[in-house]
Amino acid sequence: MDYKKTAAAIKADSFKMASLSRKTRDLALQAMIDTLSAHKDEIFAANEEDLKQAALDQLPMPIQNRLKFDDHKLSDCISGMKDLIAMEDPLFQELLKRKLDDDLTLIKTTCPIGVIGVIFESRPDALVQISSLCVKSGNCAILKGGSEAARTNRILFDLLYKAGTQAGLPKGFAALIEDRAGIDELLKCHESVDLIIPRGSNQFVQYIMANSKIPVMGHADGICHVYVDKDADLQKAVPIVIDSKTQYAAACNAAETLLVHRAAADDFLPALAEAAGSSIEFRGDTASQALMACTPAKDSDFETEYLDTILSVKIVDSLQDAVDHINHYGSHHTDCIITENPETAQRFMSDVDSAGVYQNCSTRFADGFRYGFGAEVGISTGKLHARGPVGLDGLVTYKYKLFGNGQIVSDYASGARSFKFEDIK
Amino acid sequence: MDYKKTAAAIKADSFKMASLSRKTRDLALQAMIDTLSAHKDEIFAANEEDLKQAALDQLPMPIQNRLKFDDHKLSDCISGMKDLIAMEDPLFQELLKRKLDDDLTLIKTTCPIGVIGVIFESRPDALVQISSLCVKSGNCAILKGGSEAARTNRILFDLLYKAGTQAGLPKGFAALIEDRAGIDELLKCHESVDLIIPRGSNQFVQYIMANSKIPVMGHADGICHVYVDKDADLQKAVPIVIDSKTQYAAACNAAETLLVHRAAADDFLPALAEAAGSSIEFRGDTASQALMACTPAKDSDFETEYLDTILSVKIVDSLQDAVDHINHYGSHHTDCIITENPETAQRFMSDVDSAGVYQNCSTRFADGFRYGFGAEVGISTGKLHARGPVGLDGLVTYKYKLFGNGQIVSDYASGARSFKFEDIK
């Protein structure tokens, strides 16, 4: 496979994809739903093979769990696709329509980014979600899934590809890369690929960024914090901290560090330790060691994404100390304050430099489905373009169309003509 | 000067800047207008010194011209600042307000990017424009201007800085770097600086991108095209091509290449050559050499930004050939079709992968002022975040605020609770 040629052909098709009507794209999504439902037994059989191999290879249990694609996962996928069909078209939206002068009209209109390379981990449902988001947003997708899900990904891709092209999508609307070496080839295709979305470890994302000229949207780390303020309702704080840490410890939006205001610590930390029992391993600073059973935290603990049921704990003297700690050690993903004081919450939300700033709820809510986006291609911790869970909005850009009738700039520079600047609603 | 420390202090102030009211930011802009007006003689005197030195140093005339800061430039700056004051606040805009469940409300709200480093060329008016845009959008600005404008930049900065801080902006709202070495120091401050906007040569922008972990927004090149279609009105085409090339040949939005449909070439090229006279040096492909006086174009001509009154010319067989040429050789900046056929124009605008796609008007319209943005910090040829002329919109990002009352994800995962997803208008 000549990646540069393939990518160039996909790029050429991306312009066809960009001009398809909403109807064609939605019908393609419906055809994809239909084919997944019709062939679910074959999909599950392929997944069984992947699962058997994973067990033989003794892959870690979290990976084996993520690999599973069953009736429950399929119906989640289909429900997300139905949501996407129902959603407003992200394309052809006029963000601005301005009369610059008579017969000179500027229209800022949304359009797809073009060709998006997505590299994702073991979950086969990610392939379905990402493909669907790209179809709805008019982007071509080059997909690379985890090798442990190879059989499931292959049948899912084949079904979606056949349904999509039969429903009128161009041949290049999607492609599947099946070998690891293909990632490095993809990274060289900066003339054809507009964006790479890597999902995986921090190290992997850094590798992608260092080895490609293609813009990368992704997150580097998920070091999320819960700060229990002096005005916290401890009845809320205890379950929120436990949920943020344990509901799915391997997720990027799980909390890694608990910050507690000194005035709340005496009451809160023992209550938390009792409620958590053995479900959380605490690593505390000196002050918190006196209040709960925990191992001593090193400074490096506060910059670690455990991906496990370990929580570092630190007692702080003020809101400002908590904010400073989060901005310094955090990864600008999602951070939560527990407080009943609305002004304190407002200041926390303004000063914490993260994509998600929460009051009185679990950090685990940071997710495209839970935000009502239908699906997500990932979560961005960058501040440009898209931030937080990335749904359809993050997959479109815009262009400026200017319709004239012979106008030249000399006439405006000389003062012979002047701009009118009237926005057209 | 310890750049990392200075940048960290500015970063700390960026959170104060982010929470200022619109009123404070607008009053600061008004104070800046007042001080510029009150001290204009001193500004012009400093500029005279810069101009004298530039003449002694025999700097190229285009640079000497750009360096000039006179009554005309000042009144343009002030008019842009007044426009900014009148504009809607780009901050605190609710892009989405959604009830996820009872007492669980998601608000997607605009906020500043934070700390922006801007490196600009000889025009001192750029300092005023960029500072104003950053104040209106609540960003802190670290500015580095051209050394040939050092005296003008220094007095402009001192006046703006004093007026801004007296009007209530934090001390770190702006800083001026005065030595070339400061650029490399700035590039190392990825922990404090959120975005670099370089304005300068392609080579310079590439250097910045290769030497910093900080995201860069800018344009690499300005290779803009005018395509004269077979359905063109040649009466419009001639002045548009001449204006696109000659109205300001050193600008990034000046045309570098003219593409002409074979069916229009016989009539058009001789007419263009006659109208242009000696104002344009044409470099044509073999077919166009037969129709007009021109030197032969090499393939490299079509990938050259001349920054001069030179225009490469190529005859093409179809709209598709023109589109393919533009997407291959262009820089995704601004490209224009001259045609009376609306369907042809629509296809050109859909298939040309550029920030600006024009019909029947000069490429020189690609500019923040001419789009009615008040000012611009630059023009982006990237497709992510901001595209085309970048005004206030490109200087803000957003964050997701989630207000809860103790909600945890376990309850939604188990089915004990379910999301309501009601958008609040």
TrEMBL record, chains A, B:
Pathway: Amino-acid biosynthesis; L-proline biosynthesis; L-glutamate 5-semialdehyde from L-glutamate: step 2/2. It is an enzyme of class 1 (oxidoreductase). Its EC number is 1.2.1.41. Keywords: Amino-acid biosynthesis, Cytoplasm, NADP, Oxidoreductase, Proline biosynthesis. One of its GO terms (molecular function) is NADP binding. NCBIfam families: PRK00197.1, proA. This is Gamma-glutamyl phosphate reductase. It comes from Zhenpiania hominis.
